[in-house]
TrEMBL record:
Protein name: Leucine-responsive regulatory protein
Cellular component aspect of the GO annotation: cytosol
The encoding gene: lrp_4
Species this chain originates from: Planktotalea frisia
Residue span, HTH asnC-type domain: 5-66
Entry-linked CDD domains: HTH_ARSR (cd00090)
Keywords noted in UniProt: DNA-binding, Transcription, Transcription regulation
Classification via InterPro entries: ArsR-like_HTH (IPR011991), AsnC-type_HTH_dom (IPR000485), Dimeric_a/b-barrel (IPR011008), Tscrpt_reg_AsnC-like (IPR019888), Tscrpt_reg_AsnC/Lrp_C (IPR019887), Tscrpt_reg_HTH_AsnC-type_CS (IPR019885), WH-like_DNA-bd_sf (IPR036388), WH_DNA-bd_sf (IPR036390)
SMART domains the record matches: HTH_ASNC
Gene Ontology process terms (BP): regulation of DNA-templated transcription; response to amino acid
Pfam families, sorted: AsnC_trans_reg (PF01037), HTH_AsnC-type (PF13404)
GO MF annotations in UniProt: sequence-specific DNA binding
Amino acid sequence: MSVRIDETDRKILRALQVDADRSLDEIAREVGSSKTPVWNRIRKMREAGIIGAQTVKLDAEALGFEACFFVLIRTSEHDANWQAAFLKALLDRAEVQEAHRLAGDIDYILKVRVQNARAYDVFYQALISEVKVHNVTALLSMEEIKSTTALPL
């Protein structure tokens, strides 16, 4: 389903990206509309897949997940069986917050959130026991400077 997005829709989406927990009345007031038209627009954007599942953003450090690693993976394997095993290994591990297949020298990059370096090693050992990789480089994030899921609407 294709939906055209106008400036009012963009205002609604910007407001939802800031805080999706606000009431329809607050969002309608912010975008200069009334509650029912805003709700109808949100519903249409959900049906079109523009708005996905709503979740809660947790504070990783407050919950003890103090280490964030970016894991660069090179592989010499590219067949369908290897890719299926690799995908399963990633999906089975809650520590993997993001995974991207890349163009260039590195095949994959993962964002892995764990309690500490020892927990990363447990993750790493489990991963390489399940799938063959040519080279793995782990980069520890020293400081998160910016993190957002908001799109520049």
